[in-house]
Design a protein that fits this description.
Structural class of chain A: alpha+beta
Bound molecules: protoporphyrin IX containing FE, copper (II) ion
Strand order of the largest sheet of chain A: 3-2-1-5-8
Low-confidence stretches of chain B: none
Strand content of chain B: under 5%
Distance between the termini of chain B: 49 Å
CATH superfamily of one domain in chain A: Cupredoxins -  blue copper proteins
CATH architecture of one domain in chain A: Sandwich
Helix content of chain B: 55-70%
Shape of chain A: elongated
Oligomer: heterodimer
Number of domains of chain B: 1
Strand order of the largest sheet of chain B: 1-2
Order of helices and strands of chain A: HHHEEEEEEEEEEH
Largest interface: A-B, 99 and 110 residues
Number of strands of chain A: 10
Strand content of chain A: 15-25%
Order of helices and strands of chain B: HHHHHHHHHEEHHHHHHHHH
Chain lengths: ~260, ~575
């Protein structure tokens, strides 16, 4: 009697809980869809960001289609080939032709993606275009030291201009960044430029930037660097060449 | 019989046993406990991410929860205001990752299934080196205690991430040193276990058990053991160098000119990136240590409940081998943004894209196995299907990370956290649940309750996706990983709600694991007796009693067929055990 009772109780609440669980996800998804916030790629501000985003969407399409095909097939098989009285499974150990097909097709897709990626990679990380401006960025626990070469165009001289966490860049100019670190690894991440590069102690890293429009955005530290890692935030102002020169001038006045 | 001898025989039988089955079950209980500990740490991580100080309302329910936690974990909330310390948060995710990888997933897959299944499935009375096997288990508790002791030391536990990048890892306190020592001990345990597995599989197969009649779980464990033997010594050496850098003043990973806490360090001549190369030379193969056995388990369970031979047995075996070989050539895909030469990035991108091919082959063959089957949705089968469907997401998202330009953006964001949880939780852990459900009756002689099992499976599946899928979206929105408080960044101003939804789902996901625990212990004592072969399966472990006696078989069986002869035409039964002629 008692087992009978627990069985009924169990079947009731198990179904209820399963149903509740299944409803949880669509409900919250719906709530998010209607809350009006869009959580997606931040606005792109760099000259190469478009190519990186294009590659991202290409992979999203390809993997999205493969995902739908594979999971769809799985579901269809689960319904179609459920055990039924009187039906037996087909006795087969496989087929060499289909093995070749489903080896070659993914291989072709992946080689294609490799080529597409390599094009963008050599654009972004290959030899940088001639620089209009060079900047030194040095990470330390927990701040970004930004150094401009001043009027003589050379670093580590009397007229260098240094700031902490404040980076200004002129729009539509190619900027070469020299990245260093004083203590542990940090990572110089500009989400709006789609780029990140580690600042590694003992090595000077390089990356180039070119902004396409004026904006105020942030520099993120993307590599765990200790207690204050989460607040190692810098500020990047992209402005017209004139505004940038004015800013440099006033910074020079402040520091000399 | 004197009291002395009974005590010593109890010790020999249950504690210092050399029987591979007892050792497997010791690994099972130890690593399930660690899975629970790692899970609890994850709950604390989600608590902080859902309600960083910025969102914490005075006297709200969550804030009161924080105040209670402050009493329980005084080290973690030093300010007295119910706000978690950022250093403590770093310890939480470091210890969560380390415990899950080193003390839960690897011992569950390799320690439990390797020990329990290898001799039974190849028709051997025990392992080749039973004593070595016992030592490999008994190194695990000291490794766990050493790594976790950090929580009770000055300065707290390790806090440099499970990847322990130098120089951060060499600047931290004694907890980090304990982490290094503990992982070295664990590595030793893995190496001893692997020597044993390789030797056993090569030498102790029953008559007729040729290599191409081995069940796929054994193939997977065999190749995993070879990977372990080749990769783990590299990790051990790297860890010893890191230990020397942290404690003996050497400079393997530390260059000249470091200024830590305002003090110029005396080191010179070290290379920071050397640590990353050595670490990933081990840890990329290690991610295959964490997935190949789960793939083996799925390949084992799908044919049984589709009542159909495994589709493409030979390609499945060759795919495992290809993954193992290629797995040693892709490590620097974790270092695309590290400052490594960009041309090197290209080669590692290409090898990484190539390794996706054998993963695809395996997935298609699993689908082929279901095609025209006669599918029985038992709990074990549901977990195996969850494994297949979630591994697909894990593998596909790996392609985003493999494309070097896209990884410039996605590296070190939540996208990577999503990827690794789809492969390690969606893949490995569902594989583990499938394996436990499938072999529980062999281990303990009783079946797990199907109804509770399915309830646990479906809720885990739903809430796993509710926690982990949004991680991809957060990563795409530019949220960095390992971050204590994301609210200060302007581009992340609107991800708080999503994070809270994930945290709530995570708490439910944690809570529903209680169903598994209840089912486990209830079935251990009250479950339906299993009999020899409850699933009508072919492999040799089902040809002996449940649980098998000491020595496994009354007489060593002779093997006549491959492992997956289901629904052979012209037979009354739809299964044909490996040891039955005909
Ligand atoms: C199709 C197959 C796969 C591909 C192409 C792939 C690719 C990658 C790449 C390129 C990364 C580095 C991303 C970054 O840090 O920016 C990565 C990270 C990772 N992958 Fe995979 N992966 C695959 C399968 C797997 C499997 C099967 C596992 C484990 C079972 C796994 C576990 C991980 C883990 C744990 C990390 C993160 C490590 C960390 O930084 O903490 N991956 N994957
Ligand atoms: Cu940082
Ligand atoms: Cu990897």
């Amino acid at each position: 009697m008692i087992p009978q009772f627990t069985k009924i109780l169990l079947s009731g609440w198990t179904k209820g809980i399963m149903l509740g669980g299944c409803l949880f996800v669509p409900t919250t998804a719906w709530a998010f869809g209607h809350s009006g916030v869009r959580v997606w790629l931040p606005e792109n501000l760099s000259i190469y960001g478009k190519s990186i985003d294009g590659l991202f969407y290409l992979i999203l399409w390809i993997t999205g289609i493969i995902f739908a095909l594979v999971e769809g097939t799985l579901l269809v098989f689960l319904f179609r080939y459920r055990a039924r009285a009187g039906k037996t499974a087909t006795y087969t150990h496989g087929n060499n032709l289909v093995e070749v097909i489903w080896t070659v097709i993914p291989a072709i897709i992946l080689v294609f993606l490799g080529f597409q990626s390599q094009k963008v990679w050599s654009y972004v990380r290959g030899n940088p275009p001639p620089a209009d401006l060079e900047v030194q960025v040095t990470g330390e626990q927990f701040a970004w030291n930004i150094r401009y070469p001043g009027t003589d165009g050379r670093f580590d001289t009397e007229d260098d201009i240094t700031t902490i966490n404040q980076m200004h860049l002129p729009v539509n100019q190619t900027v070469l960044v020299h990245l260093k670190s004083k203590d542990v690894i940090h990572s110089f991440f500009l989400p709006h430029f789609r780029i990140k590069q580690d600042a590694v102690p003992g090595i000077t890293g390089h990356l180039w930037l070119e902004a396409t429009q004026p904006a105020n955005v942030e520099i993120v530290c993307a590599e765990l660097c200790g207690l204050g890692h989460y607040r190692m935030r810098g500020f990047l102002t992209i402005e017209s060449a004139q505004a940038f020169q004015d800013w440099l001038g006033s910074e020079y006045g402040d520091s000399h | 019989m004197s009291v002395e001898t009974t005590r010593s025989s109890f010790l020999r039988k249950y504690i210092f046993s050399t029987d591979h089955k007892t050792i497997g079950i010791q690994f099972l209980f130890t690593s399930l406990i660690m899975l629970g500990v790692g899970g609890l740490l994850a709950m604390l991580i989600r608590l902080q991410l859902g309600w960083p100080a910025h969102y914490l309302k005075e006297q709200s329910l969550v804030h009161r929860g924080f105040l209670i936690l402050e009493k329980l974990l005084p080290g973690g909330f030093p300010s007295g205001s119910g706000i978690m310390d950022s250093g403590y948060y770093n310890m939480l995710f470091t210890m969560h990752g380390s415990i899950m990888i080193f003390f839960a997933i690897i011992p569950l897959l390799v320690g439990v299934f390797g020990n329990y299944l290898i001799p039974l499935k190849i028709g051997a009375p025990d392992m080749a080196f039973p004593r070595l096997n016992m030592v490999s288990y008994w190194l695990l508790p000291p490794a766990i205690l050493t790594v976790c002791s950090g929580f009770f030391l000055q300065g707290g536990a390790a806090a440099a991430g499970w990847t322990a990048y130098a120089p951060l890892s060499t600047t931290l306190g004694p907890g980090q040193v304990c982490w290094i020592v503990g992982v070295i001990i664990l590595g030793t345990s893995s190496i001893l276990g692997a020597i044993n597995y390789v030797t056993t599989i090569i030498n102790l197969r029953a008559p007729g058990m040729t290599f191409f009649r081995l069940p796929l779980s054994i193939w997977a464990l065999f190749i995993t053991a070879i990977i372990t033997l080749m990769a783990t010594p590299v990790l051990a050496s790297a860890l010893i160098l890191l230990l020397l850098d942290s404690t003996a003043g050497t400079s393997f990973f530390l260059p000249a000119g470091l200024i830590i806490d305002g003090v110029l360090q005396p080191n010179s001549g070290g290379q920071v990136l050397l640590w990353q190369h050595l670490f990933w030379f081990y840890s990329h193969p290690a991610v295959y240590i964490m997935i190949l056995p789960a793939m083996g388990i799925a390949s084992e369970i799908l044919p049984v409940f589709a009542r159909k031979p495994l589709f493409g047995y030979h390609s499945m075996v060759y795919a495992i081998m290809a993954i193992a070989v290629l797995g040693f050539m892709v490590w620097a895909h974790h270092m695309f943004t590290s400052g490594m030469n960009p041309t090197l990035g290209t080669s590692f991108m290409l090898s990484t894209l190539v390794i996706a091919v054998p993963s695809a082959i395996k997935t298609f063959n699993w689908l082929g196995t279901l095609w025209r089957g006669s599918i029985r949705l038992t709990t074990a089968m549901c977990h195996a299907l969850a494994f297949v469907s979630m591994f697909v997401i894990g593998g596909l998202t790996g392609i985003f990370a493999a494309s070097t330009p896209v990884d410039l953006y996605l590296h070190d964001t939540y996208f990577i956290v999503g990827h690794l949880h789809y492969v390690l939780f969606g893949g490995s852990l569902f594989g583990i649940f499938a394996g436990i459900t499938f072999w529980f009756p062999k281990m303990f002689g009783r079946l797990l309750n199907e109804r509770l099992g399915k309830l646990h499976m479906i809720l885990t599946f739903i809430f796993f996706n509710a926690v982990m899928f949004p991680m991809f979206i957060l990563g795409i929105a530019g949220m960095p990983r390992r971050i204590y408080d994301y609210t200060q960044y302007a581009h992340l101003a609107h991800v708080g709600g999503l994070n809270r939804m994930m945290s709530v789902s995570a708490f439910i996901l944690g809570a529903v694991q209680v169903i598994f625990i209840i089912n486990f212990f209830w079935s251990l004592f009250r479950g339906k007796p299993a009999g020899e072969n409850p699933w009508q399966a072919n492999t040799l472990e089902w040809a002996t009693s449940s649980p098998p006696p000491h020595g496994n078989f009354k007489a060593i069986p002779t093997v006549y067929h491959g492992p997956y002869e289901y629904s052979v035409p012209g037979r009354k039964q739809d299964w044909l055990p490996q040891h039955v002629k005909g």
